[in-house]
Design brief:
alpha/beta; 2-enoyl-CoA Hydratase, Chain A, domain 1; 3-stranded mixed sheet; 13 helices; 9 strands; about 50% helix; globular
């Protein structure tokens, strides 16, 4: 069965809405990953776009995580990085482009999906529905797509380590309390709030929006150096026998299926 486009881009009144549509769980796979890289370049270069909003067509999943089968294919002897890998570069594009970037999270988000959302300027989640998880350590790796760098800055060291080492589900209310998201809103209020905010920002002088964002970003020190170190640490885990076994066990136990992903926190706890 052929699959359609994993992303749909709509631009209205300066707001680019990127709709993620990669069923069944919106994996960052061979379709979605390059498509997201392309759309990041496209909206960054479009002077008519002033705000970028990421949301999912599937209310149950924003982006589950990076495709584990692709992780299993990564080389285990990669040299020390001197420049950002393609995933880090994509996330940095959303963080640094001279326009506001917003992630709208209605359902589950984990791993690389969470890292993309963390790279956006703002995140808003559906109260009672959105669930966050960084499951990587349970799989023998670590959040290698900017998760260690972003969470430590946004949530603080202790909460970042609880999420990253615990590999458990974090509900939207807790995520908002921690700073993982800006706000957790009732589901029926989520999109109207974000839509109004995006249109409001898009109505302001774009040079002022870009200058203000750049000034705020200057307060974040050593981001690229920290991402490079994170990437090296991630690569160093890939060849460990327990990593190989945990990645295989994750797939065997239902990882990357809707049923398995809905119990991701529980599933992660079964891999030790």
């Amino acid at each position: 069965m052929s699959r359609g486009k994993p992303l749909h881009l709509h631009i209205v009144d300066g707001v680019a809405t990127v709709v993620i549509d990669n069923p069944p769980v919106n994996l960052f796979d061979r379709l979605l990953y390059p498509a997201m890289m392309r759309v990041a370049e496209e909206v960054a270069a479009d002077d008519d776009v002033r705000v970028v909003v990421l949301r999912s067509l599937n209310p149950d999943f924003f982006i589950a995580h990076f495709d584990v089968t692709l992780i299993q294919m990564l080389p285990t002897d990669a040299p020390r990085a001197e420049e950002l890998n393609s995933f880090h570069a994509m996330c940095e594009a959303f963080r640094t482009m001279p326009k506001a970037t917003i992630a709208v999270i209605e359902g589950r988000v984990g791993g690389g999906g969470s890292e993309l959302a963390l790279s956006c300027d703002m995140r808003f989640a559906a109260l009672g529905q959105a669930v966050f998880n960084q499951p990587e350590v349970a799989l023998g790796i670590l959040p290698g797509g900017s998760g260690t760098v972003r969470l430590a800055r946004l949530a603080g060291r202790s909460r970042a380590l609880e999420a990253i080492l615990g590999c458990d589900d974090i509900d939207a209310a807790t995520a908002a309390e921690w700073g993982w998201v800006n706000r957790a809103l009732p589901p029926d209020e989520l999109w109207p709030f974000v839509d109004r905010l995006a249109r409001r920002i898009a109505s302001f002088p774009p040079h002022a929006v870009a200058a203000a964002k750049a000034a705020v970003l200057r307060a974040e020190k050593e981001v690229v150096a920290d991402l490079l170190a994170e990437g090296d640490a991630f690569n160093a885990t890939l060849g460990h026998p327990r990593t190989v076994a945990a990645l295989a066990a994750f797939m065997d136990r239902g990882g990357q299926t809707p049923e398995g992903e809905r119990r991701l926190g529980e599933l992660a706890g079964e891999l030790g």
